[in-house]
Amino acid sequence: GESVGLHLPTLSVQEGDNSIINCAYSNSASDYFIWYKQESGKGPQFIIDIRSNMDKRQGQRVTVLLNKTVKHLSLQIAATQPGDSAVYFCAETPLYNFNKFYFGSGTKLNVKP
Amino acid sequence: SQTIHQWPATLVQPVGSPLSLECTVEGTSNPNLYWYRQAAGRGLQLLFYSVGIGQISSEVPQNLSASRPQDRQFILSSKKLLLSDSGFYLCAWRGGSPLHFGNGTRLTVT
Questions:
Q1: How sure is the predictor about A7, in pLDDT bands with cuts at 50, 70 and 90?
Q2: Quick one: average pLDDT of B31-50?
Q3: Which A-chain residues 51-110 have CB contacts (< 8 A) with chain B?
Q4: Is the dihedral angle over the CA atoms A79, A108, A11, A63 positive or is it negative?
Q5: Which of B49, B98, B104 is opposite residue A34, by nearest beta carbon?
Q6: 3-class state of residue B85 by DSSP
Q7: What's the CA gap between A101 and A103, in Å, rounded?
């Protein structure tokens, strides 16, 4: 399968600071990208998505940036809160098969009070 | 609104025993349905997906099978479990673009 993410690093931030979580993908045909949040023992929760015809998309306290030139995706969380502590991972899918989402292994975000 | 239900939440089964995990979706029609497995600290591995009743696509040859007897029901099965089948199994549905996941089943094969 395609390579997304690769390992599980940990990011520790202070409550109130901004967080930036990164993801690399390898399939240049990828067309659609999603960020998920997964809390311990639960299923992944959709956060935000972006299509390849966009560079940036904003949600509530979250922003996704897409750099297709270097195949890089990032999730920015503003004013990080303790409830944001979880594993975050990206997923991508190519246009030619929208049923095949490829997932990275994720980044663990620890928010210190 | 749409909801997805998976059960059981946890399951401990002996090697060689059968398996049946069920997933149902409410509030949508003709969804695409998916079974994923997640190993600890790893990404999600697509096992099966279905675009309609009776239509199953298998992504990874293994000891598992899937069935879709009804539009909003997806079942993951095994005739004889292996130790390597242990993991966190997630069902997901898609009507538009993003996948939406259930809360998973933690399977431990002993």
A1: low
A2: 89
A3: 89, 91, 99-106
A4: negative
A5: B98
A6: helix
A7: 6
